[in-house]
């Protein structure tokens, strides 16, 4: 978590200066993205909210979506990550929507992705970007930290 804080601090500084906000949808990073952003003084100026959308119950209960809303997309994929980033941005009326979705380990997920696989996405005005990270690691905690770093770096690279 400590290595995430400098990234989050820079993100917070930029977002506050621009008077912009972010909403976060994360899964296998387990809330580390949100925690790092919220650890910054003055986070209420830029952090609209976030959720750990980890299981189907959270998908239905927290964001009010059904399997049909996915139109054939699967979790832990770039299209899903872009959909989730766009959805959280819209629901929270944020300038930026950020998503992380993957398989932290020690095993892979039900879609055939190995442990250490995550997709991140960022959606904002004129920006819709996603990418995939494969760590090759099965250590759950290490992957969670690496996944959170990947999401924060994606956001920072695109707001600098």
From TrEMBL:
<protein>
    <submittedName>
        <fullName>CinA family protein</fullName>
    </submittedName>
</protein>
<dbReference type="InterPro" id="IPR008136">
    <property type="entry name" value="CinA_C"/>
</dbReference>
<dbReference type="InterPro" id="IPR036653">
    <property type="entry name" value="CinA-like_C"/>
</dbReference>
<feature type="domain" description="CinA C-terminal">
    <location>
        <begin position="6"/>
        <end position="158"/>
    </location>
</feature>
<dbReference type="Pfam" id="PF02464">
    <property type="entry name" value="CinA"/>
</dbReference>
